[in-house]
Amino acid sequence: LRLKTGCDVLVFETPRERLVDHPNIVYSLNSVKEIKTIAHLKNRRVHIQYDLGHHRSSICTQEAIDKALLLCRQNDIQVEGLYGHLRIQSDQKAINEIKALFPHYEIKYKHLCSSETYLLDVGNAIRIGSNLYGDGLDANFEQAVELYTYASRIIKARKGDTFGYYPGFTATESCLLAELPIGYAVGFLRNYSGSMLFCNNYLYPVVGAISMNSLLVKIDRYTPKKAKFYLTSKDYPPTFFAQNNSLYNPEVLLLFHPDHIIYIND
C-alpha cells in the first residue's frame, strides 16, 4: 500500500476479511454488519454510504442511517461523511433524494461520490476521481496523471533480423527498435502488441511478441536515451490505448502496476 503522506483515501468497498489499519484509510460503511469488523481497528474512520439504486449499500433509509450512527458511537467509530453514488448523472430523483437527506445530519462531509458529479452543487464536498486520470467525460478537464517508461536500449535492426518469441518480429527492412523494460508482469499483456505508444510527439507501434519484462517499439527516428515513452499523458489520453484494445478508459490504468510513483505539486 503506497499512500502520499497526509492524504486520506476513502475505500468504497469494505473488504470482507482483514482490513488495512492505516491513519489515512477511511472506510465506506455499506452495512451495519461491517461495524463489527471496523471496531477492531486502531484507526476507525468511516463515511456512511446511502444507497441510491446501485445496491452497493444496505443503508437506504433514514432509520438505517440513524441505527448506523448509534452503533458507530457505541463502538467509538468516527463518522466523517455521508454520501451517495449515482447510477447516472442525470438521475434527478436520486439527486433530490440525497439533497433532502443531507440537512438532517451534522456530518463533516456530505457528498455525491460519483466522478461525473463534480460540477453538481450537492453537499459540501466533491469527488474528482477518474476525471484526473483521463476518463474522457469532460473534454475541458486536463488529465493529471502520466504513465511512462524509458528505453533500456535502442537496437539497429537489419533486414531479416528476428526478435522475441516466435513468430515475434522480423525486420522487413533496416530499422530502429526501442526496447522498453515493461511486459506482462506489470500488466502490459501480450495481446497489446500493435498498440501505439507516444514519444516526442510521435506515435510508435509495439511490435512482435511481448515478453514478461520487455517489449519492442518500432521507431523511425533518433530518440534520446532519456525520452519518455508514454502509455498515457495529457497529450495522449487513455482513450487512444483503450479503443485500440477494446478497453474502458479507467481499465487502462487499473491494468498496469508501475514500479515507481511520483507525486508532483503543481
The CATH homologous superfamily of the largest domain is called Alanine racemase
Low-confidence stretches: none
Major sheet: 6 strands, parallel
Mean pLDDT equals: 88
* CATH domain class name of the largest domain: Alpha Beta
What would you call the shape?
elongated
Structural class: alpha/beta
Number of helices: 5
Q: What is the CA-CA span between the terminal residues?
A: 24 Å
| Order of helix and strand elements from N to C terminus | EEHEHEHEEEEEEEEEEEHH
Could you tell me the CATH topology label of the largest domain. Answer: TIM Barrel
Brief descriptors of the model:
266 residues, alpha/beta, TIM Barrel, Lyase, Ornithine Decarboxylase, Chain A, domain 1, 2 domains, six-stranded parallel beta sheet, five-stranded antiparallel beta sheet, 5 helices, 15 strands, elongated
Short structural summary:
The chain is α/β, with parallel strands linked by helices and about 270 residues long. Helices cover about 15% and strands about 25% of the residues.
Describe the structure.
This protein is α/β, with parallel strands linked by helices. The chain has 2 domains: 9-126, TIM Barrel, CATH 3.20.20; 147-255, Lyase, Ornithine Decarboxylase, Chain A, domain 1, CATH 2.40.37.10. Helix content is 15%, strand content 25%. It is built from 5 helices and 15 strands. It has helices spanning 35-38, 62-74, 92-101, 238-244, 249-255; strands at residues 9-11, 25-29, 45-50, 78-84, 109-112, 125-126, 147-150, 153-157, 162-163, 169-170, 175-180, 196-199, 202-207, 215-219, 228-232. Strands 1-2-3-4-5-6 form a 6-stranded parallel β-sheet, covered by helices on one side. Strand 2 (25-29), helix 1 and strand 3 (45-50) form a beta-alpha-beta unit. Helix 4 (238-244) packs across helix 5. The longest helix is centred in the N-terminal third of the chain and has 13 residues, at 62-74.
